[in-house]
Design goal:
Bound molecules: adenosine-5'-diphosphate
Helix content: 25-40%
Number of helices: 17
CATH class of the largest domain: Alpha Beta
Number of domains: 3
Number of strands: 25
Strand content: 15-25%
CATH superfamily of the largest domain: ANL, N-terminal domain
Strand order of the largest sheet: 2-1-11-10-12-13-14-15-16-20-19-18-17
Structural class: alpha/beta
Distance between the termini: 68 Å
CATH topology of the largest domain: Rossmann fold
Shape: globular
């Protein structure tokens, strides 16, 4: 082999902010703050203050590899910590405040966090948790002196005092690009949350991908609204990708209600917005209730939706009322998170809106860097015919190879693929579509029924507010689908009407065996349907003919 004659240099997160501070130094970071006002600064400012953060960490005695945790919304101070902590060689542990307090306590201890930086919102929570966080040596409230509350957190430090007194002279250390940079725990729907440890290299490579045209196409021309939280897989990598390309970033702070989001989109001339379906539903409610005309008020061009499936009606509303194209994306904490993105091919140019929406509900095509296969229960590859569905497996340089401290044991198959726990089809053009979570798929007479497809079909009925489908034991077929429905308030709907509505919309043998009506459905801390809880609730349920 002959080696290439190209220069080498580690792909470090500090190089992103260095680049932004030189070549995009005036591009803005706009943040709605916990204190109230909208704050404006630039990449130049973030770079300077991240260096002050790095000096502050040195003063606190933080060493390379130490975990420094945050419990914070999207905002400029959080961004300073993204760069200051990781850039100095420590590991940024972004904690999801929506987890249950016992889970937060568990992961802070499991990660052995040394310091915790947190927003004003979380003062009452930390008052309770501080004595239980065994390894945390100090707590830093991310505000200025005038907002420091009277509270029961011993030795509480003030961010602006701690950081403000530091020099902004700091030389970013250079080290191996495979060094750990940040840590994020999975939400732990089964068992304890598990830690996913990203590296500098994986984060920088993921940023290149996020900026490329057929992925999210983030660029200096964009004003990007990060509704997706910075404690949720590093806000889908946007704080890093933003610095790489110099995109203007707009951070909503704690205000995620429809009105606040709409006003931020309008006032900050947002061109690209990223978030999970739930926040967009709140935005739609605000638009409808106030008869707003988003097309006239806003200049949003693309809306990235991920975290759970983007419903067809949502893609349609963004297209027709906002003039925005929905970029449907799929991924997970273990994948940094980007895996597939639903963008169009030349052959889709002449598609009608209807045809295009049918495509856009798919989660999209594998992006460079992510290899993907679907397999049966025995691990055999299944065809990419858009029909066969199987376990979705992935591998690549921003996919995890193991959880922190070896939790969960060996997680890759013989070919190095990670089992996502999702069940999917892949069509001949490479478009992947999630049909279920592996543990939710209904196994009926040796065939699989997608609970998600049934739920989507059921919510198409105008009287249905929410629907869930679980598999229930059946003497003959092993398992059959049970449809659980929440009616819209004041609406009538019978079992027979519901089944009649589904007839013809799904394969005959997929039709639910029974329909039951409930007042509400259980959800996880991140708003996903809690199927495990539902299965528990319906443990003693028996089908009528059984
Ligand atoms: P995130 O919610 O940020 O994607 P998690 O790791 O909490 O990260 O959850 C990952 C899971 O969420 C995936 O395995 C998949 O089941 C689901 N998911 C993510 N994106 C989509 C999507 N576009 N459509 C359907 N399910 C999705």
């Amino acid at each position: 082999m002959t080696m290439g004659l190209m220069q080498d240099g580690p792909l470090l997160i500090s190089t992103l902010i260095e680049h932004a501070s030189r070549f995009h130094k005036d591009a803005e970071i706009v943040s709605r703050t916990c204190e109230g006002p909208v704050h404006r600064c630039t990449y130049g400012d973030i770079s300077r203050r991240a260096k002050q953060v790095a000096n502050a960490l040195a003063e606190l005695g933080v060493r390379p590899g130490d975990r420094v945790a945050t419990l914070a919304w999207n905002g400029y101070r959080h961004m300073e910590l993204y760069y200051g902590v990781s850039g100095s060689g420590a590991v940024l542990h972004t904690i999801n405040p929506r987890l249950f307090p016992e889970q937060i306590e568990y992961i802070a201890n499991h990660a052995e966090d040394q310091f915790l930086f947190f927003d004003l919102t979380f003062v009452p929570l930390i008052e309770k948790l501080a004595p239980l966080m065994k390894t945390v040596k100090g707590f830093v409230l991310m505000t200025d002196r005038s907002h420091m509350p009277e509270c029961a957190i011993p030795g509480l430090l003030c961010y602006e005092e701690l950081v403000g007194r530091q020099s902004s002279e700091y030389e970013w250390p250079v080290f191996d690009e495979n060094t750990a940079s940040s840590l994020c725990y999975t939400s732990g729907t089964t068992g304890n949350p598990k830690g996913v440890l990203y590296s500098h290299r994986s984060s920088v490579l993921h940023s290149f991908s996020a900026c490329s045209a057929d992925v999210l196409g983030l660029g200096a021309k964009d004003s990007a609204l990060l509704i997706v939280p910075m404690f949720h897989v590093n806000a889908w990598g946007m704080p890093y990708a933003g610095a790489m390309c110099g995109a203007r970033l707009v951070m909503p702070g704690p205000a995620l209600d429809g009105k606040s989001v709409y006003e931020l989109m309008r006032d900050e001339k947002v061109t690209l917005a990223l978030g999970v379906p739930t926040v967009w539903l709140m935005l739609f409610q605000h638009v409808d209730a106030n008869r707003l005309v988003p097309r006239d008020d806003l200049c949003v061009e693309r809306v990235v939706i991920g975290g759970s499936a983007a419903p067809r009606a949502m893609c349609e509303k963004f297209e027709t009322q906002f003039g925005a194209f929905v970029v449907h994306a799929w991924g997970m904490t273990e994948m940094s998170p980007l895996g597939t993105v639903c963008n169009l091919l030349p052959k889709h140019k002449d598609y009608s809106l209807d045809q295009r929406l049918n495509l856009q509900v798919k989660q999209g095509r594998a992006i460079y860097g992510v290899d993907m296969k679907i397999t049966d229960d025995e691990g055999n590859r299944l065809p990419h015919d858009g029909k066969a569905f199987g376990h979705l497996m992935v591998r690549g340089p921003w996919v995890t190879k193991g959880y922190l401290k070896g939790e969960g044991g060996e997680i890759l198959d013989a070919e190095g693929f990670f089992d996502t726990g999702d069940v999917a089809t892949i069509d001949p053009d490479g478009y992947m579509q999630i049909t279920d979570r592996a543990k939710d798929v209904i196994k009926s007479g040796g065939e699989w029924i997608s609970s998600i497809d049934l739920e989507n079909a059921a919510v198409g009925h105008p009287a249905v507010a929410e629907a869930a489908v679980i598999g229930v034991a059946h003497a003959k077929w092993q398992e059959r689908p049970l449809l659980i429905v929440v009616r819209k308030s004041g609406q009538e709907l019978t079992r027979e009407e519901m089944l009649g509505f589904l007839d013809g919309k799904v394969a005959r043998w997929w039709l639910p065996e029974d329909v039951v009506f409930v007042d509400d459905l259980p959800h996880t801390a991140t708003g996903k349907l809690q199927k495990m809880k539902l299965r528990e609730l319906f443990r003693d349920y028996r089908f009528p003919e059984n």
